[in-house]
Amino acid sequence: MQVNIAESWKHILHEEFEKPYFSELLNFINEEYQNYTCYPKGNDIFAAFDYCDFNDIKVVIIGQDPYHGVGQANGLCFSVHDGIAHPPSLINIFKEIETDVNIPYPKSGDLSRWAKQGVLLLNATLTVRAHEAGSHQKKGWEEFTDAVISKISEECSDVIFLLWGGFAKKKGKKIDKKKHHVLESGHPSPLSANRGYWFGNKHFSQTNTILKEKGLSMIDW
Predict the structure, then answer these.
(1) How many CB atoms lie within 10 A of CB 166?
(2) What is the mean pLDDT of the chain?
(3) Neighbours of 163 (CB within 10 A)
């Protein structure tokens, strides 16, 4: 597998692509995609970077694994292709948006519309074997996405990081909180949301308030 990633990111991450762990990761991914059904499609593995240029980042949302059901994963965390039923976490995200910023629940679960506005939708692990959650964890993806977060933290300023759940909060250790804005809450999954850790976090309105204060265009959620 070749790394087909947008030019702005290629420049930022070129040192990472040269490291031994990344070569080992690519070998593992090649074998997995040859021998098993894996998601997302090969062309979508780096979709988060293709839709959101490094120089345009305003917001970063960190997910964990891609969806592992048929036709769901499209390379953007929490997002699904048009026509695919919305998974429970995405339903809860849209419900919070509905009450927070008064936007009607959308038909489309494709979040590329956010990514094009400067929202990096980054999963910690970029691939998964079909129907086997976590199957591509601890193979190198986490090291790569840690490096991505570190680079954003070092080279950008005033980025808004939305950290949902314990896994994303651990990733937050890579963020310089003096330079950036970090909003934390529980995960939008039903388990967390039904315990009161998700609904009412108002992350979407808070994000737009910060952007407005910085003189930047707000996100149309």
Answers:
(1) 12
(2) 95
(3) 21
Torsion sign (Cα): 126, 129, 133, 138: negative
Summarised one tens digit per residue, pLDDT across range 106-130 is: 999 999 999 999 999 999 999 999 9
Give residue for tokens 């737009």: 208
Distance CA 148, CA 190 (A): 28
Residue 47 has a pLDDT of 96
Q: The tokens of 119 are what?
A: 């929202």
Tokens linked to 13: 């991450």
Instruction: Give dist(CA 64, CA 123) in Å, integer.
Output: 5
- Which regions in the chain score pLDDT beneath 70? 1-2
Q: Is 202 helix (H, G, I), strand (E, B) or coil?
A: coil
Express each pLDDT in 137-171 by its tens digit: 999 999 999 999 999 999 999 999 999 998 899 89
Tell me what pLDDT residue 196 has.
85
Residue 2: other Cβ atoms inside 10 A: 7
Q: Are 221 and 114 in contact (CB under 8 A)?
A: yes
Cα separation, 38 vs 20, whole angstroms: 23
Of residues 44, 50, 65, 100, which has the active-site annotation? 65
Q: Catalytic annotation on 65?
A: yes
Query: In whole angstroms, what is the distance from residue 53 CA to residue 82 CA?
Result: 23
Rounded to whole angstroms, how far apart are CA atoms 102 and 142? Answer: 35
